[in-house]
């Protein structure tokens, strides 16, 4: 029997709001008794403290529990998010912003991942899964499970977006148009995230 650990994560819900009849009872009865329901700015989200043998198993079982509720509820995404600012990197690693800034500016280490969004703004965004891989490769963190978990969250969120047929059809149509839908996973240009 695999040892279990406590995993903390958040599921953001859609198709429900704070006025949805029997929402809390339905979620509790479907197995989400290890989650705290929250309502903020019109969004509904569940903060889980779930025991499992892996983060992947914990999140997938939580999504299945939500979707087995007696009312129609979908999971739109899993937090923590993959896109992070310099400040969020600092917070997640519990290190000073100055340390992160030195990494970013390559004063302490080389080859820090490049930002992927908001390049011309004061708060560019990086992919957390690329940051964790860099941290592991530079021996700043030693637990490879952190790298695996960050990649899993990035991919589960991509998979959840693909659940919407219109989104999936549009993405695959666009991939065909730009000639990327026929790339094989062994091709160096192929990338899931």
Kindly describe this structure.
A hairpin with a 2-residue loop joins strand 2 and strand 3 (43-52). The mean pLDDT is 90. With 193 residues, the chain is an alpha+beta fold. 40% of the residues lie in helices and 19% in strands. The chain has a four-stranded antiparallel sheet with strand order 2-3-1-4, covered by helices on one side. Strands 5-6 form a two-stranded antiparallel sheet. The protein has two domains: 5-79, Alpha-Beta Plaits (2-Layer Sandwich), CATH 3.30.70; 83-148. It is globular, with a radius of gyration of 19 Å. Helix 3 crosses helix 4 (97-104) and helix 5 (128-137) runs antiparallel to helix 6 (144-162).
Question: Notable features of this structure?
Answer:
193 residues; globular; alpha+beta; 19% strand; 6 strands; Alpha-Beta Plaits; 7 helices; 2 domains; 4-stranded antiparallel sheet; two-stranded antiparallel sheet
Domain count: the total is 2
Give the proportion of residues in helices. Answer: 40-55%
Major sheet strand order: 2-3-1-4
Q: Uncertain spans, ≥5 residues at pLDDT below 50? A: none
According to DSSP, the number of beta strands is 6
Shape: globular
pLDDT average, as an integer?
A: 90
Largest sheet: 4 strands, antiparallel
Q: Report the order of strands and helices.
A: EHEEHEEHHEHHH
Cα(first) to Cα(last) distance is 33 Å
Count of helices? 7
The secondary structure category is alpha+beta
């Amino acid at each position: 029997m695999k040892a279990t650990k406590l995993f903390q994560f958040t599921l953001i819900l859609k198709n429900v709001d704070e006025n949805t009849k029997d929402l809390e009872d339905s979620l509790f009865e479907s197995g989400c008794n290890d989650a705290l329901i929250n309502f903020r700015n019109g969004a509904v989200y569940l903060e889980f403290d779930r025991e499992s043998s892996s983060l992947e198993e914990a999140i997938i079982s939580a999504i299945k529990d939500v979707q087995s509720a007696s009312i129609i509820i979908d999971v739109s995404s899993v937090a923590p998010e993959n896109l992070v600012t310099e400040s969020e990197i600092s917070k997640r690693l519990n290190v000073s912003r100055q340390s992160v800034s030195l990494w970013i500016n390559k004063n302490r280490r080389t080859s820090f991942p490049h930002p992927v969004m908001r390049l011309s703004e004061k708060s560019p965004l990086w992919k957390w899964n690329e940051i964790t891989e860099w941290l592991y490769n530079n021996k700043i963190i030693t637990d490879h499970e952190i790298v695996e978990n960050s990649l899993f969250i990035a991919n589960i969120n991509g998979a959840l977006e693909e659940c919407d047929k219109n989104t999936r059809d549009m993405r695959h149509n666009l991939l065909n148009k730009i000639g990327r839908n026929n790339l094989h996973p062994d091709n160096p240009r192929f990338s899931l995230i």
